[in-house]
Amino acid sequence: MKVRLPAGSAIGANQAASGTVVCPARSYAEAMYEGVCPVCGRNNQCQKASAIYAAGTSYARGYAYDEGHRRRTTTVNQTTLAKQLSPPVLQPNQGILGNGIALLFVGVIAHLFCSAIMSSTSASMSASIFAPLCVTGWPLAIGALMTIGSVVQTKQFKADLPRRQANWRVWNTVYYCYLDDVAFVPGGPPFHPGQLPGFMATNTGPFARP
């Protein structure tokens, strides 16, 4: 497709000599076909799932007070449609790992403190080591479980990352038709928005699940 440029346009010397530039873009009809609903055959009621997710998701940050202590909170508000058209998760939740390490740190410090106090008395060495576990055993055990579980989950997440990336590429091509309440990819069959995870799992090429 050739587009006539006005005189004095800032283009390359070779293109300026002829006064035309060859556009590699597709035709208008081809570009518009991507958003055509396979049910109603229209495109004026269709929108990409990524745009719907961005418009229907908001984050509210504020502060909450618990027993006189202020803590920062983040609330996620989503419409039902945005939740149904949510993208696949590409990164694991690192909050559990951080909380587990924090509990381990608190438990170790408390255990050392209690052991130091008991060792300064007439308590034996074994009592100074094992007796504080009655108090510090809970944070140590919970922190260890949270840390180990988070590490295992992160390894599994990284091993599954290629499939999740393939799901992401599929998600970036999904459209939604407001008129018929169906989601679709160009040239593919329509499906309900709530079936998006299953659709991505079965349409990711070599990573597709049977």
User: What is the CA-CA span between the terminal residues?
Assistant: 43 Å
**What percent of residues adopt helix (DSSP H or I)?**
40-55%
Arrangement of strands in the largest sheet: 3-6-7
Shape: elongated
**Any low-confidence stretches, pLDDT <50, length ≥5?**
1-32
Helix count, DSSP H or I runs of 4 or more residues? 9
Q: Give, in order, the helices and strands.
A: EHEHEHEEHHHHHEEH
Number of strands: 7
Q: In terms of structural class, how would the helical and strand content be classed? A: alpha+beta
* Rg on CA atoms, Å: 29 Å
Largest sheet: 3 strands, antiparallel
Whole-number total of structural domains: 3
Oligomer: single chain
Strand content: 15-25%
**Overall mean pLDDT:** 76
Description:
- The structure is a single chain.
- By secondary structure, the chain is an alpha+beta fold.
- The protein is 47% helix and 17% strand.
- The protein has nine helices and seven strands, in the order βαβαβαββαααααββα.
- Helix 5 (95-119) runs antiparallel to helix 7.
- It is elongated and about 85 Å long.
Topology record:
Elements: E1 2-4, H1 13-18, E2 20-22, H2 28-33, E3 46-48, H3 49-55, E4 57-66, E5 69-78, H4 80-84, H5 95-119, H6 125-130, H7 133-159, H8 161-171, E6 175-177, E7 182-184, H9 196-201
Antiparallel strand pairs: 1-2, 3-6, 4-5, 6-7
Helix pairs in contact: 5-7
Describe the structure using short key phrases.
3 domains; 210 residues; two-stranded antiparallel sheet; alpha+beta; single chain; three-stranded antiparallel sheet
